[in-house]
Design a protein that fits this description.
Strand order of the largest sheet: 12-22-21-14-15-16-17-13
Helix content: 40-55%
Number of strands: 31
Radius of gyration: 33 Å
CATH superfamily of the largest domain: ATP-grasp fold, A domain
CATH topology of the largest domain: Dna Ligase, domain 1
Structural class: alpha/beta
Bound molecules: phosphoenolpyruvate, magnesium ion
Largest sheet: 8 strands, mixed
Number of domains: 6
CATH architecture of the largest domain: 2-Layer Sandwich
Length: 895
């Protein structure tokens, strides 16, 4: 029989898939002997069964009853009994953390009877009724589906009537009134009563938490974080402990290190006389943990010791939720904590230095995405604008955008390509779409552990929270800042998530310390040193080489400084633009061979100079030069433009310019409905006489020039858009003919490998044949994605990709992250069949995917020799290539 319920004593962190992260870690802490209130976990398997059928799985409720009885026996009290009732919390907890996205119901077991018993045993009527109103509110909204805003309205009315600044200023009779009001609200809204049976409360709360797996915000969060939709959540049922029992009680959140900077030492927020939910929602401002040390030194010391135990045990930054009930510390949750990119690098390096991790494990803890974030520019602190406010620097980075005051507005403006900053008094999980759309989040309340901060950090959004200087009036769509400055919706502000400063206007940006290091080797601070260590280690273990896509000497030089081991794609089309366009035009409209040869001859020295510069910047390493790819009409003037000019001339009785007429004829001749599938790539080389010869001659002469200058040029010639081996054979013959010719003319033999791009499905499927003529393959995954899916790469992303992402057709754009199943399969086939035909075949990738972390893992797996990406992605690719290599090593640490 399937088992659905597990006691804390039965589990451990290795069971996170079944028990959810929260449940598994509670079990782990119980095993470590930390003070965890007892409880049990209903598994994700039960949730999946419930979501699949809409019914509680058979046997689950009997198991719950059995575990509840055991809990009651252990504690010595019954759930919801009249005197001194046992109360439990019912919390969600999926395999991967989804902060605030699913539901929780606290204080299960309270009813009209047991609330009196709780009042008696606690000696506090206020506490008992405060707990009851929390239950009725949470249960009413979560289980019975009443709009939570109605409960909040009643609370606000009461606070206003009592002139109470917060809920602490309400007394027991106020709370009795509130409970009654909430109950009649439920009755009015649902036609049903708040249930008095504790067993029914428990059962319904568990099912409601299951259902919240499919809440809109949870679905959106999963899509963003790429968490599979079919995992389901576990539910933890745990004896309640109370942080709201008076001044010697409270709740808090702690990190074993600072999650923003990685600095060691206990870090967090504490809220006296409050339950945990109050801390994360930011309804009242928490105090730093240092304050707890003053208020309750014993609990603080215990917390510090437990934090250390956890960090050593998990060998990572942990975050902790805890409650102090009348001077007794209870641990309510722990997990490996989310952190900023800065903190990830700093912590990984420190844990390696402390000997807690090996260098491979340290590398596994950082990511290419994190490194990319560290490379983003920062604000120029010498040129800051007027300071509007300073808050808690909760998630670093520099962001500029128009202030907006609700999630919907943020989404709408961002969809129109406007950069926005979402400004809220405090955020709720329902603000998630706006947080995704915004460049930054700014809140007036809450600390580093508030919901806004946690979610923003997780997504790499800039976040400043708890900016006390601002008063947000969301209804009037404005906020008032320091010195009474009023910021209306749409006003541009700058948010510095590294310092907590908020400025009026757009502050200019400068290079980050990490970028300066990559450019010059200067190790400005400990984070930069940590990045350097991680990159060094990645370089020492990676198998994939990293090259760059660059087509100017400047880009080539930068790529080299960033660690590129060559150029994997030098596109030659930009060399046909600017002033040279006239020469290209002349080549295209040439009537005679002699005219065309003249135009080509004029282009030759210019191309030679381009190649010489690049080969010099990349001396000693390979430079893969691709022959011209785009259709020639891209170099001609616009068709409509020309037609209008000619028509205008004719309309005024003048003779149109002959050159214009000639050009229009050429444009019309070459017009294509689908130029991406038309006369481009190798096809162009085969039908425009002299084009391949001119480019190859320029390359060969550049090689000779560099060789004579004492250099070590390694040019490789790459033929684009080949679909059949015959195309490559013809192109190759021409290439070899010209290379030989230049060798004989100059007396310096020129040897360049000749290879092809694999960027059409037919090329991938006939790779064995094509390899007969190719020294190397380079996968053009941009075109290969375009042609495999039948997606026009220039159009589809704007046209319907956001709808496809929303509908879950794919989790990421296939132009960003390689589609392993389809395009990846073609890559795999081509590598295998290409290598089978030619064992020394060199293979690489030069599409945009070459700089994408997830895709790099795949390219490592299929055994490519190198990835090539834009110069700015080179460090990211080095790091990810190192991380990919970890998979081949035995780095298991028994976890
Ligand atoms: C490709 O198609 O992946 C590629 C690198 O070539 P381009 O983007 O220039 O078409
Ligand atoms: Mg291409």
């Amino acid at each position: 029989m399937v088992r659905y319920v597990y006691d804390f004593l039965d589990g451990g962190r290795d069971l996170a898939g079944l028990l959810g992260g929260k449940g598994a870690n509670l079990a782990e802490m119980t095993r470590l002997g930390l003070p965890v209130p007892p409880g049990f976990i209903v598994s994700t398997e039960a949730c999946r069964a419930f979501l699949a059928t809409g019914e509680e799985p058979k046997g689950m409720s009997a198991e719950v009853s059995r575990h509840l009885s055991a809990l009651e026996t252990g504690v010595g009290r019954l759930l919801g009994q009249g005197y001194d009732p046992l109360l439990v919390s019912v919390r969600s907890g999926a395999r991967f953390s989804m902060p605030g996205m699913m539901e929780t119901v606290l204080d299960i077991g309270l009813n009209d009877d047991s609330v009196l018993g709780l009042a008696k045993v606690s000696g506090s009527e206020r506490f008992a009724w405060d707990s009851y109103r929390r239950l009725v509110h949470m249960y009413g909204s979560t289980v019975m589906g009443v709009d939570p805003a109605l409960f909040d309205e009643a609370m606000t009315l009461l606070k206003d009537a009592r002139e109470a600044p917060d809920d602490l200023h309400l007394d027991a009779s106020d709370l009795v009134w509130l409970v009654e009001t909430y109950k009649s609200l439920i009755r009015n809204e649902t036609g049903r009563d708040f249930p008095q049976s504790p067993a029914q409360q428990l059962q319904q709360a568990i099912l409601a938490v299951f259902r919240s797996w499919n809440a809109e915000r949870a679905v959106l969060y999963r899509r963003r974080e790429r968490i599979p939709d079919d995992l389901g959540t576990a539910v933890t049922v745990q004896r309640m402990v109370f942080g709201n029992l008076g001044p010697d009680s409270g709740s808090g959140v702690a990190f074993t290190r600072d999650p923003a900077t990685g600095r060691p030492g206990l870090y967090g927020d504490y809220l006296p006389n409050a339950q945990g939910e109050d801390v994360v929602s930011g309804v009242r401002d928490a105090v730093p943990l240092a304050e707890l040390e003053r208020l309750d030194p014993r609990s603080y010391r215990q917390l510090r010791d437990h934090a250390q135990t956890l960090e050593r045990h998990y060998r990572d930054l942990c975050d902790i939720e805890f409650t102090i009930e009348r001077g007794t510390l209870w641990m309510l949750q722990t997990r490996v904590g989310k952190r900023t990119a800065e903190a990830a690098f700093a912590i990984a390096t420190e844990l390696v230095q402390e000997g807690l991790l090996g260098p491979d494990e340290g590398l596994a803890r950082v990511s290419g995405d994190g490194l990319a974030r560290l490379m983003f520019p920062r604000f120029d602190t010498t040129a800051t604008g007027e300071t509007l406010a300073r808050g808690v620097p909760a998630s670093p980075g520099a962001a500029v955008g128009a202030a907006v005051f609700d999630s919907a507005e943020a989404v709408q403006r961002a969809a129109a390509d406007e950069k926005v900053v979402l400004v809220r008094e405090e955020t709720t999980p329902d603000d998630l779409p706006g947080m995704v759309a915004a460049q930054a989040v700014l809140t007036g309340r809450g600390g580093k552990t508030s919901h806004a901060a946690v979610v923003a950090r997780g997504m790499g959004r800039v976040c400043v929270c708890g900016a006390q200087d601002i008063i947000v009036n969301a209804e009037a769509r404005r906020f008032t800042a320091r010195d009474g400055i009023v910021v209306e919706e749409g006003t541009v502000i700058s948010v510095d998530g590294s310092t907590g400063d908020v400025f009026l206007g757009a502050v200019p940006l400068v290079a980050s310390a990490t970028m300066r290091y990559l450019e010059s080797g200067e190790e400005a601070d400990s984070v930069v040193s940590a990045v350097a260590r991680a990159l060094d280690h990645a370089d020492s273990i990676r198998r994939l080489e990293v090259r760059a896509n660059a087509d100017t000497p400047e880009d080539a030089a930068r790529a080299r400084r960033f660690g590129a081991q060559g150029i994997g794609l030098c596109r030659t089309e930009h060399m046909f633009l600017g002033e040279r366009r006239k020469l290209v035009e002349a080549m295209i409209v040439a009537r005679t061979d002699a005219d065309r040869d003249r135009a080509l001859a004029a282009l030759l020295p210019l191309q030679r100079r381009d190649f010489t510069g690049i080969l010099e910047a990349m001396d000693g390493v390979p430079v893969t030069i691709r022959l011209l790819d785009p259709p020639l009409h891209e170099f001609l003037p616009d068709r409509t433009d020309l037609a209008v000019r000619i028509a205008a001339a004719e309309a005024t009785g003048q003779q149109p310019e002959a050159h214009h007429v000639e050009l229009l004829a050429a444009v019309n001749r070459m017009h294509e409905e689908n130029p991406m599938l038309g006369l481009r790539g190798v096809r162009l080389g085969l039908v425009v006489p002299g084009l391949i010869a001119m480019q190859v001659r320029a390359i060969a002469e550049a090689v000779v020039e560099r060789t004579r200058a004492g250099g070590s040029p390694h040019a490789e010639i790459m033929v684009p858009l080949v679909g059949a081996v015959e195309e490559l054979r013809l192109a190759r013959e021409e290439v070899v003919r010209v290379l030989t010719e230049v060798g004989e003319e100059t007396g310096t033999p020129v040897h360049c490998p000749v290879g092809t791009m694999i960027e059409l499905p037919r090329a991938a499927l006939t790779a064995g044949r094509i390899a007969e003529e190719a020294d190397f393959f380079s996968f053009g995954t941009n075109d290969l994605t375009q042609t495999t899916w039948g997606f026009s790469r220039d159009d589809v992303e704007a046209a319907f990709f956001s709808a496809y992402l929303d509908k879950g057709v794919f989790a990421a754009s296939p132009f960003e992250t390689l589609d392993r199943e389809g395009v990846g399969r073609l890559v795999r086939i081509a590598v295998e069949e290409g290598r089978a035909a030619r064992p020394d075949l060199e293979t690489g990738i030069c599409g945009e995917h070459g700089g994408d972390p997830e895709s790099i893992q795949f390219f490592h797996e299929v055994g490519l020799d190198y990835v090539s990406c834009s110069p700015f992605r080179v460090p990211v690719a080095r790091l990810e290539a190192g991380r990919a290599a970890l998979a081949d090593m035995d780095t298991s640490d028994g976890r």
